[in-house]
Amino acid sequence: MSSNGGPDDSGEEGPHPELCDFCGAVIPGGTVEWLALVRDSSAIHAVDPRLNGKRMLVGCSREHLARLVEQYKCRPFVAAELWAGKIMRALQRHPEGISEEDLAAETGLSAEQVQRAVMWHNIEARRWLEQYGQNEDDGHDGSQ
Length: 144
Hints:
Distance between the termini: 60 Å
Helix content: 40-55%
Number of domains: 2
Shape: globular
Structural class: alpha+beta
Number of strands: 4
Order of helices and strands: EEEEHHHH
Number of helices: 4
Radius of gyration: 20 Å
């Protein structure tokens, strides 16, 4: 905050509030005390591939954080899910398409891992469709 009450000229804002990942309670900026890093094959970091497969949890209390950590301990870590996420991130950076060779190089995956990730993705997509059905608003009516 500048001396005249307006935004600080440095361009830096104060700490942003966080939400408890368990109950959704608002935690005022700069006061988060309960954090944990857990394995999660669905977590793909936007910019740092070293953080893929890791999720930071925020709790408003020790108890809520402990319950969150327990939930993630019960969730299986599925390598193919992590690989599929890496592939999706790479494809988003190349909307014009990318060769399989370049895809493997960009993601650090082998050809076999790429194939397994695609199979995992297709199986999960079919499972989702079986559970939730076709979206009526997507313009597809099932006919050719």
